[in-house]
Amino acid sequence: MDQKRLKQILSSSADIEVQYNGASVWIDKLNEDGRTATVHLRGPLEERTVVDISELDEK
């Protein structure tokens, strides 16, 4: 995923499915470096992980 699309998803009110390593995640924010994002799994667990935005896949 590129930075422009990630910003569009973050500003959208739509429920856009994004996956990281095959797991559905919520994007919390684009980090200041512009190359990583903080995400957490959809569901009851809210453990946050920093991932490279190139590894995020819109479904």
Helices, strands, pairings?
Elements: H1 3-11, E1 18-20, E2 23-30, E3 36-41, E4 48-52, E5 56-58
Structure characterization notes:
Keywords: Sporulation. It is found in: Spore core. By secondary structure, this protein is α+β, with helices and mostly antiparallel strands. The chain has one domain (3-58). The chain is 15% helix and 42% strand. It contains 1 helix and 5 strands; from the N terminus they run αβββββ. It has a 5-stranded antiparallel beta sheet. The longest helix is centred in the first third of the chain and has 9 residues, at 3-11. It is globular. The N and C termini lie close together (11 Å). The relative contact order is 0.30. The mean pLDDT is 94.
Euclidean distance between termini CA atoms: 11 Å
**Mean of pLDDT:** 94
Instruction: Tell me the series of helices and strands, N- to C-terminal.
Output: HEEEEE
How many strand units? Answer: 5
Give the structural class. alpha+beta
Percentage of helical residues? 10-25%
Give me the number of helical elements: 1
Please report which band the strand proportion falls in: under 5%, 5-15%, 15-25%, 25-35%, 35-45% or over 45%.
35-45%
Give the total of domains: 1
> Numbering strands along the chain, what is their spatial order in the largest sheet?
4-3-2-1-5
Keywords: Sporulation
Family: Belongs to the SspH family.
Pfam families: SspH
Subcellular location: Spore core
Gist?
The chain is of the alpha+beta class and 59 residues long.
Provide keyphrases for this structure.
alpha+beta; 5 strands; 59 residues; 15% helix
